[in-house]
Amino acid sequence: MAARTAVVTASGGKGIALVMKVLVLTSEPITAEQLRSALEADIDPEDAEVMVVAPALAESAMKFWMSDADDAIGRAEQVRRESIERLGEEGVSATGDTGEADPYTAIEDALKTFDADRIVLFAHEPGDQRYREDLDDRELAERFGLPVDRAVV
Q1: pTM over 0.90
Q2: Class for the domain spanning 19-152
Q3: How far apart are CA 87 and CA 44, in angstroms?
Q4: Which of 19, 36, 56, 82 holds its CA 20 to 30 A away from the CA of 26?
């Protein structure tokens, strides 16, 4: 259910507006146009509250298991920062966080402080995915009880 937000109209009246809360999980920087294309037609990201989570995905299983996380964390911070900047330049207000290497844990952590109405997943094509980027939309929806939209980056 979309969050209720108190608003003041142009005529000075007061009212309640429903604000869609969208949790974006992405492995690459995204734009407002990419987000708009991933969402259902009746959802405008400019009217939504958006949180971008960039998980610290390792390039390979070997790097993950060798605990070589510095590059993955640095890349996730860059993705988060660039996404928020790009979205803001295009009129979409967004916050963000760098998430855990396990995307399911990254989503779970984000949902503790951001009560999302839906999840938008941006991921690479199967042959180009980083380690643990192969998320199942149905499993995400079932696990978190939210609708899931997917787009390719």
Answers
A1: no
A2: alpha beta
A3: 12
A4: 19
